[in-house]
Specification:
Elements (H helix, E strand, L loop, with lengths): L7 H22 L4 H21 L14 H14 L4 H21 L4 H9 L16 H9 L6 H16 L3 H5 L6 E2 L6 E5 L5 E5 L2 H14 L11 E4 L2 E4 L2 H17 L11 H13 L4 H8 L4 H7 L5 H13 L10 H7 L3
Antiparallel strand pairs: 1-2, 2-3, 4-5
Length: 345
C-alpha cells in the first residue's frame, strides 16, 4: 500500500481541499487575519516546495499520502539541520500542516483521518527561552531622532517610527492602517487597529504623537481620503502601501547612521524590537501586565507574561533592593493570600 502511486483523483482532492482551506475556510469561516492567512499559505507552500526539491515529487502529483509521518518528520529535520531555521519557524509550519490535515479529515474522513492522527504524534521542536531583544532608552531616542524631518521621506519615516513606538503595534498592523483609523479630534485621541483574528482594539495617542500626526497628515494627506493607506510611497505616480521589508531596511539604515555618530546600537536591529521596546519600557515603568496585554493585542495573558518573563538586570536589582529595605513587619508573612502564593506548586 505504501508504494502505491497516488491516482490523479488523489492529487485533485489534495489541491481542491488545500485551496478551499486557505481561500475559504480561514478567511470566511474562521475569520482569521490576512497576515495569518499569508503565514499559513507560505508554510504549506514551503512543505510542497520541499516535497518537490527533496523528495522528487511532481507538484501535479502531490496528494495527502505525501503528508506521512516520515515525510513531515524529515521536513522538520531538514528545516532544523540543513536550512538552520529557528525552532519557532519550524513549529509554525508544523502547525499549518496539522491544521490543513485536520480540516481535510473532517471534510473527507475516507482514509484521511488516519493521516491526520498520525501527524499529531509528531512533537514540536523544543525552543529555548531567550532574553527578548529591545533597544535601550538612549538607543531608542537616537533611532527616533535619526530621520531628517526636513525632507518629505524623512518626515514619513519619522512618523512611522514614532507611531510604531507609541502604539506598540505589530508592523503588519501599522502598514495596513488607513486614514480613517485615526481619531485625533476625540476627547482622548486614539487610533483603532485591526489585529489578529480580525479583532479591533483602540490605543490612546500621546499629545506629542498627535501633534506629529497632524503635521504629517498635512504633508501626505492634504486631500482627506479615509481609505488611503496612512503610510505610503509613490512610484510612477501611483500610490502603494509600504512593505515590511522597506521598514526593516529603514531601521537598519538609521541604526547604522547612529553607529556612525558614535552611538552603540544592537548588531542585528529589526522591526519587532521597537514593539518589544515600547512594551518593556511600559513594563519597567510599572504598567500592569494586563494593560500591556491589551496594548499588544495578545489574546492570552500567558503570551504577554512569556514575552516579558525576562526582566532587565536593572529592574531585578531594584526589586531586590526594595525587598531588602523592607522590615519584617512589612513582609506580611501571615497574609493567607501571600502564603498561598508562596506555598503553591
Amino acid at each position: 500500500m505504501k508504494n502505491k502511486k497516488p491516482s490523479g483523483s488523489d492529487s485533485v482532492l489534495f489541491w481542491k481541499t488545500a485551496k478551499e482551506y486557505v481561500d475559504h475556510k480561514l478567511p470566511d469561516i474562521r475569520k482569521v487575519s490576512p497576515n495569518t492567512i499569508k503565514v499559513y499559505r507560505d508554510s504549506l507552500n514551503k512543505y510542497i516546495d520541499y516535497l518537490e526539491s527533496e523528495k522528487g515529487r511532481r507538484r501535479t502529483d502531490i496528494s495527502f499520502s505525501d503528508f506521512s509521518k516520515s515525510n513531515i518528520t524529515d521536513f522538520l529535520d531538514w528545516m532544523l539541520n540543513e536550512k538552520k531555521y529557528a525552532p519557532k519557524t519550524c513549529n509554525l509550519r508544523l502547525t499549518a500542516i496539522h491544521a490543513l490535515l485536520e480540516y481535510a479529515a473532517n471534510e473527507d474522513s475516507n482514509g484521511l483521518m488516519s493521516i491526520y492522527l498520525e501527524s499529531c504524534s509528531i512533537k514540536t521542536v523544543k525552543a529555548g527561552n531567550n532574553p527578548i531583544e529591545y533597544f535601550e532608552p538612549y538607543q531608542m531616542k537616537a533611532l527616533l531622532a535619526a530621520p531628517d524631518r526636513k525632507t518629505k521621506t524623512g518626515l514619513r519615516n519619522s512618523m512611522m517610527l514614532i507611531l510604531y513606538y507609541d502604539t506598540a503595534a505589530r508592523i503588519s498592523e501599522l502598514l495596513q492602517m488607513n486614514v480613517s483609523q485615526l481619531h485625533l479630534d476625540a476627547e482622548t485621541p486614539y487610533l483603532t487597529i485591526l489585529g489578529k483574528g480580525r479583532k479591533y482594539r483602540s490605543i490612546p495617542l500621546m499629545d506629542k504623537t498627535v501633534a506629529h500626526l497632524k503635521k504629517y497628515l498635512k504633508a501626505y494627506h492634504p486631500i482627506y481620503d479615509q481609505n488611503a493607506p496612512l503610510f505610503y510611497a509613490r512610484t510612477h505616480g501611483m500610490i502603494h502601501a509600504l512593505s515590511e521589508d522597506t521598514v526593516e531596511t529603514m531601521i537598519k539604515k538609521y541604526s547604522k547612521d547612529c553607529k556612525t555618530n558614535g552611538i552603540s546600537m544592537p548588531d542585528k536591529p529589526h522591526c519587532h524590537m521597537i514593539r518589544k521596546t515600547r512594551a518593556m519600557d511600559l513594563y519597567k515603568s510599572g504598567m500592569p501586565l494586563s494593560h500591556i496585554q491589551q496594548l499588544l493585542g495578545h489574546e492570552s495573558m500567558s503570551t504577554t507574561t512569556g514575552f516579558y518573563a525576562f526582566v532587565t538586570l536593572d529592574t531585578l536589582a531594584k526589586s531586590m533592593e526594595k525587598a531588602n529595605q523592607e522590615d519584617d513587619g512589612g513582609r506580611r508573612w501571615s497574609d493567607p493570600s501571600v502564603l498561598r502564593q508562596l506555598y503553591s506548586l
